[in-house]
Structures are given as C-alpha cells and as structure tokens.
Amino acid sequence: MKIKLLLILSSHSLTQILMMLADFHKVWVILVHIILFFVDIAIIKERDKRNGKYLEDQRDHKKIFEETDNNPTNGVG
After folding, report:
1. Max alpha carbon distance in the chain (Å)?
2. What letter does residue 42 receive in the DSSP assignment?
3. Is 53 exposed, middle or buried (0-12, 13-18, 19+ CB in 10 A)?
4. At what angle are helices 14-51 and 53-70 packed, to 10 degrees?
5. Any idea what the Cα angle at residue 44 is, between residues 52 and 32, rounded to 5°?
6. Residue at 5 is within a domain
7. Is 34 among the domain residues?
8. Residue 18: inside a domain
C-alpha cells in the first residue's frame, strides 16, 4: 500500500493527484445521492403502505378522474 502510494506520488504532481481525487469525489457523491434518492422513495412508499395512505391516495386519484369524466365542461365555464 505504501509502495503504491509512493509510486503515485513520484509519478504525478500534487495538482494532478488533487484533481484525480476531486474527480473521484464528484462521481462518488453523485452515486451516493442517486442511491439515497431511491432508498428515500422506497422508505416513503413503505411507510405510506403501513399507514394505509397509499391505498387512500389511489382511491382519491380514481375519484378525481371519474368526476372529470362525468363533467362535460371539464372545469371550464
């Protein structure tokens, strides 16, 4: 490990090493944020399912569509 680090340090300047670390950090941060976004969505869906809210939202969504289908003006006039 120390030998690899010494080889990297000897073959690259400090600015090159810092730029490589910065690029790696950007990619890592983006990947972590994407993963956390999907985990967050899954947690919210699971919580809503346990509370029964997910099913209620689906019923309300269907009611809204049925009401707009029965309304010939579709909210105009």
Report:
1. 78
2. H
3. exposed
4. 80
5. 165
6. no
7. yes
8. no
Residue with tokens 């909210």: 75
Q: What is the pLDDT of residues 49-67, one digit of tens each?
A: 777 665 666 666 666 666 5
- Tokens at 5, concatenated: 């680090």
Domain count, the chain: 1
Contact 45, 54 (CB under 8 A): yes
Q: Which residues contact 48 (CB under 8 A, 6 or more apart)?
A: 54, 57
CA–centroid distance for 60 within its chain? 26
Ordered alpha helix ranges (H), 1-77: 2-11, 14-51, 53-70
Q: What is the pLDDT of residue 28?
A: 87
> What is the residue range of 47's domain?
25-77
Contact 48, 54 (CB under 8 A): yes
- Domain presence at residue 45: yes
For the entire predicted model, the pTM comes to 0.43
